[in-house]
Amino acid sequence: MEIEEIQKIADYCLHCKTKPCKKGCPLGNDITEFIEYIKVKEYKKAYYKLLDTTVLQPVCGRICPYYEQCQGSCVRGVKGEPVNIGILESFIGDMAIKENWKIERLEEKKDKKIAIVGGGPAGITASAYLARRGYNVTIYEKHNNLGGLLVHGIPDFRLPRKTVEETINKILALDVNVVLGKELGNDIDLEELAKENDAVLLAFGANISSKMGIEGENLDGVFGANELLEYENFPSLEGKRVAVIRWW
What we know:
alpha/beta; Fumarate Reductase Iron-sulfur Protein, Chain B, domain 2; FAD/NAD(P)-binding domain; 4-stranded parallel beta sheet; 38% helix; 8% strand
C-alpha cells in the first residue's frame, strides 16, 4: 500500500482520549498513540510504541480478529467505517523488517535461565520479552521450525511464511536459543528442565479441534481442521462432496 493511502487511513483516526480501541485489544496496544506517530510520519517511533506490548506486529496486523477487538471498539465505526488498524499495524511491522529496526534489550544479562516449551506465538513472544529483560532463554519446539499455529494452522496466502520467518528472526536476534524437534514427554523431561533452569514456561497450544457434541461427529470421513492443518495429512477428496462447518 502506498504511503499516501497509509497517511489517509491514519488521519481518519480521531485520537479519542478514552482510547476504546486500546481497551478492545487483548494486548493493550496503545493504538491511538502509534497512529499519531504515523500521522506525523514518525514511523520508527510508531514501531517502538507498538513494541511495548507486541513483537508480532506484521503477524497481528494481518490475522488478528480486529473487527471484533480494536476495530470493533472504534468510535468511527458507530456511524461509519472504523479505522483500519490492522493495515496500519502490519505496515509498521513490515517497515521495521525492511529497515532492520531492532528489538532492543532493556536490561543487562542476568544469571538466570528460562526454558520455554512451545515455539508458537505465546512461546516466541514470551522469549522476546524475557530476553529483553536479560534472561537467558531457550525455546523447545516439537516441530522442525518455529511458529506453531502461524505456520501449521494458517495458510500461506493468509499469512506469508516469509513474514513469519522474518518476524521470528528479529526475536532470535536477542540471543534466544532454540532446540527443534524435541517434544515434551518424549524427547525432553519436565523435571529435568526444571532442574536445569530457574523457571519453565509451558507455552504449547491446545491445537485440538473442538467437538460440537452432535451425533455422527466421530464417523469416518469427519475431520477436525486443526489436525489436518498442523500435520498436513489431507485425505484425497477428489470427486467427492465436502462440507466445511465453522462452529464456535
